[in-house]
Amino acid sequence: MPEYLNELAGVVESEVAPNASQVDTEGRYPRANIDALKRAGLLGLTSAESVGGMGAGVRAATDVVGELARHCASTAMIVCMHYAATAVIEAHGSDEIRTAIAANRHVSTLAFSEKGSRSQFWAPLSTATGTDTDAGDTVALDAEKSWITGAGEADSYVWSSRPLRADGPSTLWFVPSDTSGLKVDGPFDGLGLRGNGSSPVSATAATISRSSMLGVDGGGFDVMMGTVLPWFNLMNAAMSVGVMEASITAAASHLGASRLEHLDETLADNPVNRLHLARARVTADAAAALVERAVTAVEAGADDAMLGVLEAKAAAGDAAIEVTDACMRVCGGAAFRKEVGVERNFRDARAAAVMAPTSDVLYDFVGKAICGMPLF
């Protein structure tokens, strides 16, 4: 087992698993979990060794996010966004911030989705306006971001806007979360992933340095598609797999422990229950295999890697809905109680299909790819 998974196992045992129920019930940002991941060095997992990180790639990131999701999907979502943002910062950010992330002193997140373009995150409506002041070349950001994971909790945002001056659909920026002019517009109170702190954030003349640009002006779309999308899709798919694993484990435990005393048998003795759980197991395993194949393709730079990336999130997200439905069904009325451990998975599983890029959009992309059509 890789050392990072050994470190993760200790964090899961000491913090993530014990805190999961309270994080969900209270809708509380899992700060203790994130602090424990910092102490274990796992937030610098994907930072380059040259700046003090572990130098791990997308496989390690999917491993960590998937294992976290088995215990606390809210924590997994926060780490997923941090690793996705780190991939951009590693490619285009300053050595100062890269070193801070590698040293586990800095948590970042993505700030793409907007009120006006919703899940079509590649089309920001927010603006970046250049100004020349005595303090140097600065940029004023104005935006209504619809959802930012860890809003107000992360140290920085990888932020999208329309280009400053160039052609192209977007430009990316490194934006400290304490930048004047940013406002978190209310707490998160959602159906699932209740502790992930995903809230709207508005920007009103939020001023940053021109040097905060990540990549080239107008080049944000290429970074989104070439850097962010593979990492985010694969980690998000791994989250769905982790939620399925947790749900199947909880359901099997309930079936084995619950008895029909008048028949002197357990719920697991009922072949219909076993059939539903077996189908859930096959569905989860098929999704996991697709994720594994996509990760391998990305690592190898295979020609069909992007197709696998698109398929993995869509398939795993839909599979998680199917599997958690089945687990609720076989556990019966008891599944509506939190102590059985299935209903939280049921709720958390709903997020992936409607999280940009949504399953419907991904299926359209896959269909276009099959037909040899451009995705955009």
Structural class: alpha+beta
Task: Characterize the quaternary organization of these chains.
Answer: single chain
Mean pLDDT: 95
Q: What is the count of helical runs? A: 11
3D shape: globular
Q: How helix-rich are the residues, as a percent range?
A: 40-55%
Q: How many β strands by DSSP?
A: 10
Order of strands across the biggest sheet? 1-4-5-8
Rg computed from alpha carbons, rounded to a whole number of angstroms: 21 Å
Q: What is the terminal separation in angstroms?
A: 41 Å
Q: Spans of 5+ residues with little confidence (pLDDT < 50)?
A: none
List the helices and strands and how they pair.
Layout: H1 3-26, H2 31-39, H3 58-69, H4 73-92, H5 95-102, E1 108-111, E2 127-133, E3 136-148, E4 156-161, E5 171-176, E6 182-184, E7 199-209, E8 213-214, H6 220-257, E9 259-260, E10 265-266, H7 271-300, H8 305-331, H9 343-348, H10 351-354, H11 359-370
Parallel strand pairs: 1-4
Antiparallel strand pairs: 2-3, 3-7, 4-5, 5-8, 6-7, 9-10
Structure, described:
The protein is of the alpha+beta class and 376 residues long. It is built from 11 helices and 10 strands. Strands 1-4-5-8 form a 4-stranded mixed beta sheet, with helices on one face. The two termini are 41 Å apart.
Q: What's the quick description here?
A:
About 50% of the residues lie in helices and about 15% in strands.
State the main characteristics:
376 residues; alpha+beta; four-stranded mixed β-sheet; 11 helices; globular
